[in-house]
Amino acid sequence: MLRPALLLSLLAAFPLAQAAPAAPDLSTVAERSGYQATGRYDEVERLCAAYQKAYPKAVRCFSFGETPEGRPMLAMAVSRSGALTAMAAQQRKLPVLLVQGGIHAGEIDGKDAGFWALREALDGNAAAGALEKQVVLFVPVFNVDGHERFGKNNRPNQRGPVEMGWRVTAQNYNLNRDYVKADAPEMQAMLKLVNEWDPLAYIDLHVTDGAKFQPDVSIQVEPVHGGDPALQPLGKALRDNVIADLRKQGSDPRHFYISFDKTDQPDSGFVDSMSTARFSTGYFPLRNRFAMLVETHSWRDYPHRVKVTRNTIVSLMEQFAQHGPAWAKAAAEADVRAAKLAEMPVSYKTTERSAMIDFPGYEYTRTPSEVSGGVWTRYDESKPQKWTVPLREEVVPDVVVKAPAGGYLVPAAQAAQLEPKLKVHGIAYKRLASAPGKVALETFRADEARLTATSFEGHQLASWKGTWKAEQREVGKGALFVPIAQPKSRLVMTMLEPHNADSLAGWGFFNNHLERKEYMEEYVAEEVAREMLAADPALAAAFKAKLESDPAFAKNPRARLDFFARRHATWDERHNLYPVYRTDFVY
After folding, report:
1. pLDDT > 70: percent of the chain
2. DSSP secondary-structure letter at 454?
3. Is residue 571 a contact partner of residue 561, using CB atoms and an 8 Å limit?
4. Is residue 443 helix, strand or coil?
5. Which strand ranges, in their side-by-side order, compose the sheet holding 201-208?
6. What share of the chain is helix, strand, coil (3-state, %, to 5)?
């Protein structure tokens, strides 16, 4: 037996091996609170680093941007394939699934559900083997500054968590209206991430607003109603497969946005639609990629909503492990077709065709309100009730536009305004090094233009009505040529066809071209009108006919003088001229 003194000397000479470092704590505030609370953004920063430390060969934590308030925008690349960069994913031809939470930071289910689902997948307790066959790109919180506008009363029509973030950014942008116009720095960072990784599917995790009813989630996917026709059956399969998985786990998912046709009137039923490009589900089909909008129901409690969102993410990983390569091949084929685009719908409409469906709701009353003076709808959640209501879900193209044979020409004067928008979307274009001179092209003039009375998302929206017409115009050095022969041709047409609601023209980027800048004083216009009447009998006859047929015109002195001003040689021929041209020529 060793004496104590000798034992101590031996221990000093040969110290015990250091204990293994403790495993990183990957639990969330939500988990530890029984999903009553959610953590602040510093938890996202901690967990992102902790996941990378816990799974160094399967997780990479990185920043892809910075918010206006100086916070890092974090993402996690997660895969058991060893491909944790965009280049590696592309080289190995692995489908990329981008899962994004917190675009509306009060609707924060996706953040806590994503960490939960990925930890289970990494540990082999969910979506077994799926991470070997794909890369999951997880953005826990898109609207980071909004997330930190934390409060208890940010979502009065939502059950839990105790506190949550705010809907919009620190600059007051609603990011889920910003995909095509890309005003917000956060959206510009997201689109840069998308351009780099080219995700096959973009998953947008939300919590719905609205009435009280029993179904707990809606799952909407595009392309289904719009986009490349050959991708639409695959979009429907993705949607239906996830819905089937959720039903097996006790959910009651719906494939349409669960919002009444008429506010607060359950008997008005539901209307499905095709989202415009300001929304994720309208934007990504224009890139020939899949988008899914997940909307858990706000009146379900937070533990239930997070579980349903977790189940959705797990289902998606399983679906992409099984079908990802085939769907990626189909998307690549759609890119080839898009480069030969002949025409496309720039708007869609839901027809009046409807079918009656049974929908699980609650007993409700609608009574006059002494407070609002309107009608007050009250639901009794203790009394489930089956509603038989109409569903309109037949969505068809509304306005279809022929694509230009060559592409679009952006004059040099507008290049500085449009070039950043083309870059942020990854659209191919070239700057003309020399002046083409006077060339044949198509121009668009607004026969009628209307501006909204108030701004929306920082823009005064514009409605341009008119047609493209052939003419010759001077095009100078420094103009931009945007070819139609590229995979993002649908996005090009959406942005540059002026009568599309989510075009740059529709967003008001060219409103000053609708403004009249030069005038005649009335006394000059009076003299000019008399000279024109005397010189042109046909004009005099047209003026007389207008007076007789249009009483409002006859009573309006300004309109009567404008009749002549618009026909005079001094009239500004660029008034109402859309400052982007179509061309059949490839530069």
Report:
1. 96
2. S
3. no
4. strand
5. 59-66, 72-78, 135-139, 96-100, 201-208, 290-297, 217-222, 253-254
6. 35, 25, 40
| Close Cβ partners of 124 (under 8 Å, ≥ 6 residues apart) | none
- Altogether, the residues listed in the chain come to a count of 587
How far is 213 from 266, CA to CA, in rounded Å? 10
For residue 292, which of 300, 301, 302, 282 has the smallest C-alpha distance? Answer: 282
The Cα 183–Cα 490 span in angstroms is 20
Which helix (H) or strand (E) covers residue 98, if one does?
A: strand 96-100
Q: Is the pLDDT of residue 7 over 70?
A: no
Q: Which two tokens stand for residue 131?
A: 């991470």
Distances (CA, A) of 584 to 88, 229, 340, 403, 482: 39, 25, 13, 10, 12
**pLDDT for the residue numbered 1:** 42
pLDDT tens-digit map of 189-209: 999 999 999 999 999 999 998
Residue 40 CA: distances (Å) to CA of 37, 403, 469:
10, 48, 55
Question: Which of 193, 196, 50, 205 has its CA nearest to residue 112?
Answer: 205
Burial-class residue 2 by CB neighbours within 10 Å (0-12, 13-18, 19+): exposed
Between CA 502 and CA 58 the distance in angstroms is 39
3-state secondary structure of 295: strand
Kindly state the helix (H) or strand (E) to which residue 11 belongs, with its residue range. Answer: helix 4-13
Which residues are within 8 A (CB) of 271 and not within 5 positions of it... i.e. 6 or more apart?
Answer: 261, 350, 391, 392, 393
**CA distances (Å), origin 93, targets 66, 139, 401, 561:** 29, 21, 34, 66
Statement: the pTM of the whole predicted model exceeds 0.85: yes
How far apart are alpha carbons 316 and 246 in whole angstroms?
11
Give yes or no for residue 11 having a pLDDT over 80. Answer: no
pLDDT at 433: 97
What Å distances lie between residue 28 and 50, 105, 116, 272, 419, CA to CA?
12, 17, 8, 36, 42
The amino acid occupying position 158 is: Q
Tell me which residue of 108, 98, 99, 104 sits closest to 39, measured CA to CA: 108
